[in-house]
Amino acid sequence: MDMNTFFNDLQSKISQAIENSPAKDIEKNVKSMMTQGFSKLDLVTREEFDIQTQVLAKTRAKLEALETRLAALEAKAGGEAAKVDIAKGDGL
């Protein structure tokens, strides 16, 4: 008998034994109970979590870019305000 055939037969016999045993019913019942319990909780799927993580990363990058731009505009506006103050002071 070929080893692959032997293991395939053994695997199929074990699978049949498990399917016909009470263990399969217990597994179904436990899965059902867990599904009901999880549905009562406020949980998100991994896919939803990953999507929100990506959205947050993009939002942080945009915020950092806007903060940098704002700082540059404030510096420019501050420099122009100082030039106006100096020009007014020279006229006095």
Automatic annotation (TrEMBL):
Residues 56-83 form a coiled coil. InterPro entries: UbiK. Keywords: Coiled coil, Cytoplasm, Ubiquinone biosynthesis. GO terms for biological process: ubiquinone biosynthetic process. Pathway: Cofactor biosynthesis; ubiquinone biosynthesis. One of its GO terms (cellular component) is cytoplasm. The keyword Disulfide bond does not apply. The keyword Metal-binding does not apply. It is found in: Cytoplasm. Belongs to the UbiK family. Required for efficient ubiquinone (coenzyme Q) biosynthesis. UbiK is probably an accessory factor of Ubi enzymes and facilitates ubiquinone biosynthesis by acting as an assembly factor, a targeting factor, or both. PANTHER family: UBIQUINONE BIOSYNTHESIS ACCESSORY FACTOR UBIK (PTHR38040). This is Ubiquinone biosynthesis accessory factor UbiK. The lineage of its organism: Bacteria, Pseudomonadati, Pseudomonadota, Betaproteobacteria, Burkholderiales. The gene is ubiK.
